């Protein structure tokens, strides 16, 4: 290991307590999407700007995606630049983390602490957003802080991006930045997205599946459950459709690709909703959502066409005229769609650089593979910019009693610094 990298790693170790305190302060601020009825990321972004206001970044920029549902009408993203040894002419590496977190879920399941009252216990920091994505956000900050403290300029300019709206599709985050500020991105950039990985940090994600979140809305006619002949139970129609769609998708799109984990496409019914609030109401409306993660070899357009065809078959099976109206009606709403881009080349510079850093710092060989999808990396791959997803995680994301392991945060910061230095 080089002498400079050794010094930076030691400095990161000295910053451990400060890193813990920073993560604790950030967890206290809920940054949940307006999609879930919350205010968004504004307060958390302001706290982060306050934390780094006296740090010697060469440039800090704030980009506000307009969203009238959010606090102050914006969804902020922050870019903080620390120039390399050749100043603005240095090659560049992005490290992207996200400000937003998912809702707490069932509060009764939070037995260690409340979601936004973080505690430090047994080498872990508990709280919503601690691992997803606070651990890596803080690690990236202090990878740079250590170099600042030592007066070291890295080989590569580091661009730390703290972005909104990752958890609900990136419409107000990375996607908005790329659409409205394409000048920010260069084809020769390297990109690390520390938002996925495994417990020992030996998995480098280079490919993602396509994503389709499909909401199916069924309309029937609400009636008293004791007189079903006078209406049409939308719940029964939705059950019929969901069962046959699930069966169709698994059978028709069932091939495997061992690059991915899991190796097959997944089609999971997740959310259901109907207005019946009593056991004796046959509902006239029903919604169900499928989360589909599809191998790149398959077309999302084909899947949508199959769903439309099946809907016609189900409508015909349940066809009924009620009060002059032909029912049921079945409509689709695509909540999110990301068509899988070409994978990052396993022999690309960012992959080789990360493998070298892990070899030097941990003495471990990292393997490459694919995941179910859903990170910032896909957006960079669409631009032809090589991106990898990597972090050392206990995979506590979205779970009650979510935690970040402090050792993972500190050790990952050293690897991030190495990517800029090597």
Structural class: alpha+beta
Question: Given the structure, what is the number of helices?
Answer: 10
Query: For this structure, what is the CATH class of the largest domain?
Result: Alpha Beta
Strand order, biggest sheet?
1-2-6-3-7-18
Count of individual domains? 2
Strand content: 25-35%
The percent range for helix content is 25-40%
Cofactor: Zn(2+); Co(2+)
Protein name: Diaminopimelate aminotransferase
Family: Belongs to the peptidase M20A family.
InterPro entries: ArgE/DapE, Bact_exopeptidase_dim_dom, Peptidase_M20, Peptidase_M20_dimer, Peptidase_M20A
Quick take:
The chain is an alpha+beta fold and about 425 residues long.
Describe this entry's structure for a reader.
Helices cover 32% and strands 25% of the residues. The protein is an alpha+beta fold and 422 residues long. The chain folds into two domains: 3-208 and 340-421, Zn peptidases (Aminopeptidase); 210-338, Alpha-Beta Plaits, CATH 3.30.70.360. The chain has a six-stranded mixed sheet with strand order 1-2-6-3-7-18, with helices on both faces. Strand 1 and strand 2 form a beta hairpin. Helix 1 (3-14) crosses helix 4 (130-150), helix 1 (3-14) packs antiparallel against helix 10 (406-421) and helix 4 packs across helix 10. The longest helix is centred in the N-terminal third of the chain and has 21 residues, at 130-150. It is elongated. It starts with a helix and ends with a helix.
What's the layout of helices and strands?
Blueprint: H1 3-14, H2 16-27, H3 42-52, E1 59-66, E2 74-82, E3 92-98, E4 119-121, E5 124-126, H4 130-150, E6 157-163, H5 174-180, E7 190-193, E8 203-208, E9 210-219, E10 223-224, H6 234-252, E11 266-273, E12 281-282, E13 285-294, H7 300-318, E14 320-322, E15 325-327, E16 329-338, H8 349-362, E17 367-371, H9 377-382, E18 387-389, E19 403-405, H10 406-421
Parallel strand pairs: 3-6, 3-7, 7-18, 8-17
Antiparallel strand pairs: 1-2, 2-6, 4-5, 5-19, 9-13, 9-16, 10-12, 11-13, 14-15
Helix pairs in contact: 1-4, 1-10, 2-4, 4-10, 6-7, 8-10
């Amino acid at each position: 290991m080089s002498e400079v990298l050794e010094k930076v790693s030691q400095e990161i170790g000295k910053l451990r307590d400060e890193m813990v305190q920073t993560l604790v302060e950030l967890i206290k601020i809920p940054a949940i999407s307006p999609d879930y009825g919350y205010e968004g990321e504004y307060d958390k972004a302001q706290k982060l700007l306050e934390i780094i206001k006296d740090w010697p970044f060469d440039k800090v920029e704030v980009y506000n995606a307009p969203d009238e549902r959010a606090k102050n009408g914006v969804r902020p993203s922050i870019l903080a630049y620390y120039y390399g040894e050749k100043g603005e002419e240095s090659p560049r590496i992005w490290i992207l983390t996200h400000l937003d977190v998912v809702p707490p879920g069932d509060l009764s399941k939070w037995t260690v602490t409340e979601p936004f009252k973080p505690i430090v216990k047994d080498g872990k920091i508990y709280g919503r957003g601690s691992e997803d994505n606070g651990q890596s956000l803080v690690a990236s900050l202090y990878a740079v802080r250590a170099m600042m403290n030592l007066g070291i300029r890295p080989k590569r300019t580091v661009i730390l991006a703290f972005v909104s709206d990752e958890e609900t599709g990136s419409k107000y985050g990375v996607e908005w930045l790329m659409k409205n500020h394409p000048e920010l991105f260069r084809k020769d950039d390297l990109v690390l997205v520390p938002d996925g990985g495994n417990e020992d940090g030996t998995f480098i994600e280079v490919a993602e599946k396509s994503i389709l979140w499909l909401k199916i809305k069924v309309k029937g006619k609400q009636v008293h459950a004791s007189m079903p002949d006078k209406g049409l139970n939308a719940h029964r129609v939705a059950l019929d459709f969901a069962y046959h769609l699930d069966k169709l998708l698994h059978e028709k799109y069932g091939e495997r690709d061992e690059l991915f984990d899991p190796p097959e496409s997944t089609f999971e019914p997740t959310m259901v909703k109907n207005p019946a609030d009593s056991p004796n109401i046959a509902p006239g409306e029903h919604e169900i959502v499928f989360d589909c993660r599809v191998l790149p070899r398959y077309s999302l357009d084909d899947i949508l066409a199959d769903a439309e065809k099946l809907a016609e078959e189900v409508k015909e099976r349940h066809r009924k005229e009620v009060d002059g109206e032909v029912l049921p009606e079945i409509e689709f709403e695509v909540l999110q769609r990301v068509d899988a881009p070409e994978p990052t080349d396993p022999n690309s510079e960012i992959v080789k650089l990360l493998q070298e850093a892990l070899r030097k710092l941990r003495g471990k060989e990292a393997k490459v593979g694919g995941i179910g999808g859903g990170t910032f990396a896909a957006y960079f791959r669409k631009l032809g910019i090589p991106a990898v997803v990597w972090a050392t995680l206990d995979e506590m994301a979205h779970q009650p009693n979510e935690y970040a392991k402090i050792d993972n945060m500190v050790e990952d910061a050293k690897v991030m610094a190495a990517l800029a230095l090597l």
